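Section 5: illustrative case.
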């Protein structure tokens, strides 16, 4: 199935960069967007348009004739609320409202495990677990999921909320459960786009890890069947990490290090992201 036009936000980002080529292949025109000046060489059928998510007019200018929006643009770490307000909260509103006004039928959104990050890992949470954000960053993901739910109920704009766990190199024991490989990310986004009817849906973005701490069984209709398994890294990671403090919220909760961020000091939770394309 070829769509006429898809829009990708966050196209200059780590995950957006992996999505550009497969999305371009699914449509006649891919409009890739980011706040960055440019994104380098374009794929067949791809066009780049700079836009600040916090500015409605700039977001609306992306949408004319769009079938769907794949919304990956955001500030991707914990920050003071006022720094997240424009890109992550208002930005989501702008995407949904502009998509609706343009007659688009679906938004596929990069949500996060941090929308439910304060749940204990010993609770094998499903897609219907109540929101339990661990940070202002996670709160913006909760806000956007609720926004998507409301636009579906009131305006029949579909959305799929991909609660991605960790799309990064497996270098700690949490990631043995939370890893999402880039190939599985591409399959996840492809299924979210090409499944004919999704209404308002939530699914965890996680690979087929032996230690995956979340349950996607109620999202099986989306047809996402991850292939990669972080267990291949277990021996090395466990040997390097040594014993952990089991009373540490960062160990006990789904949100990992974000679960122990003091909101008063938000901005300190910088996670080390290592791009591991060559190794996975
Ligand atoms: N990488 C992960 O493990 C992970 C996990 C859960 C969720 N996510 C979500 O996936 C998405 C992509 O994450 P990533 O890891 O590729 O991060 P990234 O920082 O590499 O990409 C985010 C992109 O958003 C753009 N952006 C930021 N502010 C903007 C603004 N005001 N207007 C327009 N664009 C703006 C940035 O320029 C950047 O290119 C984010 O929404 C993130 O919250 C990522
Ligand atoms: O929890 C995780 O591993 C990841 O969660 C994502 O939402 C964050 O954007 C990223 O910085 C974290 O590394």
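Designed sequence:
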């Amino acid at each position: 199935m070829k769509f006429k036009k898809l829009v990708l936000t966050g196209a200059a980002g780590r995950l957006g960069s992996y999505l550009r080529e497969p999305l371009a292949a699914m449509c006649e025109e891919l409009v890739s967007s980011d706040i960055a000046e440019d994104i380098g060489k374009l794929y067949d059928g791809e066009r780049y348009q700079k836009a600040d998510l916090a500015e409605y007019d700039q977001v609306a200018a992306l949408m004319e004739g769009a079938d769907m929006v794949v919304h990956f643009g955001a500030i991707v770490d914990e920050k003071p609320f006022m720094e997240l307000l424009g890109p992550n909260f208002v930005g989501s509103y702008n995407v949904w409202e502009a998509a609706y006004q343009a007659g688009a039928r679906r938004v596929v959104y990069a949500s996060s495990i941090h929308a439910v990050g304060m749940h204990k890992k010993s609770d094998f949470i499903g897609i219907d677990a109540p929101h339990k954000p661990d940070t202002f960053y996670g709160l913006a993901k909760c806000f956007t999921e609720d926004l998507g739910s409301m636009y579906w109920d009131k305006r029949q704009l579909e959305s799929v909320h991909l609660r991605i766990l960790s799309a990064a190199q497996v270098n700690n024991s949490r990631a043995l459960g939370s890893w999402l490989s880039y190939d599985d990310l591409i399959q996840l986004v492809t299924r979210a786009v090409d499944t004919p009817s999704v209404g308002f849906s939530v699914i965890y973005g996680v690979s087929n890890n032996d230690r995956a701490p979340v349950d996607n069984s109620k999202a099986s209709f989306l047809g996402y069947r991850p292939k990669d398994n972080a267990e291949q890294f277990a021996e090395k990671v466990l040997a390097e990490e040594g014993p952990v403090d089991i009373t540490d919220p960062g160990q006990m909760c789904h949100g990992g290090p974000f679960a122990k961020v003091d909101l008063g000091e938000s901005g300190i939770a910088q996670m080390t992201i290592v791009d591991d394309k060559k190794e996975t």
